[in-house]
Amino acid sequence: MILYNVTIGIDKDIEEVWVEWMKVTHIPEVLKSGIFVKYKFYKVLSHDDEGSVSYCVQYFTPSIEKFNLYLKDHAPGLIEQHRAKFDGKHVAFRTLLEEV
User: Rounded CA gap, 77 and 88, in Å?
Assistant: First the structure.
């Protein structure tokens, strides 16, 4: 199993709007790609920045080949939608992990 982990720091002043958008729009769009079999969405509790809060979305896919299809065919547009909607109000970093 491959885990695609996206950690996002979001400005507190838009946190509620962002969480709702992630749940209603972004995560369902990612899942519509057919690449991922499940996901988990977490708030990071160990974050201590006064102006922002962090969240982690974990997407699970059975193979690196499927993930590479996501990167090629789906990720660019989805990442651009997120950037355009929340430009200057977030930072994100991505990690790819393999279950051992």
Answer: 18
Task: Tell me, rounded to whole angstroms, the distance of Cα 7 from its chain centroid.
Answer: 7
Query: What string of pLDDT tens digits covers the 100 residues of the chain?
Result: 999 999 999 999 999 999 999 999 999 999 999 999 999 999 999 877 788 999 999 999 999 999 999 999 999 999 899 999 999 999 999 999 999 9
Q: How many residues does the chain have?
A: 100
State both tokens at 21: 């958008």
Distance CA 80, CA 84 (A): 6
9, two tokens? 């720091």
Class (C level, CATH) for 2-98 = alpha beta
Exposed, middle or buried by CB within 10 Å (0-12, 13-18, 19+), for 34? exposed
